[in-house]
Design a protein that fits this description.
mainly alpha
């Protein structure tokens, strides 16, 4: 148990570091909170909550992994190198793919609620 708590502490420290140093992660957290509010307002189903939470977690986890890649690349290659740039670009591409996926999922889940709302008032 002591080992687990120590590992958990390291993970929380990493998340705090990422939140302090990565503005994009703060944006993802803000969007996640807005999505939670939208889910509560729309009264989305249990399965929709599962999907929303999984997709949001996927985006945040991808951003944290990208931050780790950037740190390791900066450590291994302090000077500008084409392979270092490619590694950072690939990490950023992973975050972009996750974000685009989350937008598509959000549109599929929240789109019907938005259309119902608009049809009531138009």
């Amino acid at each position: 148990m002591k080992r687990f708590l120590k590992s958990l502490g390291f993970a929380i420290e990493g998340l705090n570091t990422a939140a302090k140093e990565q503005p994009n992660l703060r944006i993802h957290f803000t969007v996640f909170l807005c999505v939670i509010a939208a889910g509560l307002i729309c009264n989305i189903t249990f399965n929709e909550w599962l999907i929303v939470i999984l997709v949001c977690g996927f985006v945040i986890a991808t951003e944290v992994v990208n931050s780790a890649i950037e740190k390791v690349v900066d450590l291994a290659s302090p000077s500008i190198h084409p392979l270092a740039k490619q590694a950072k670009d690939l990490g950023a591409a992973a975050v972009l793919i996750a974000a685009i996926t989350s937008i598509a999922v959000g549109l599929l889940i929240f789109g019907k609620y938005l259309l119902n709302f608009l049809s009531d008032y138009l």
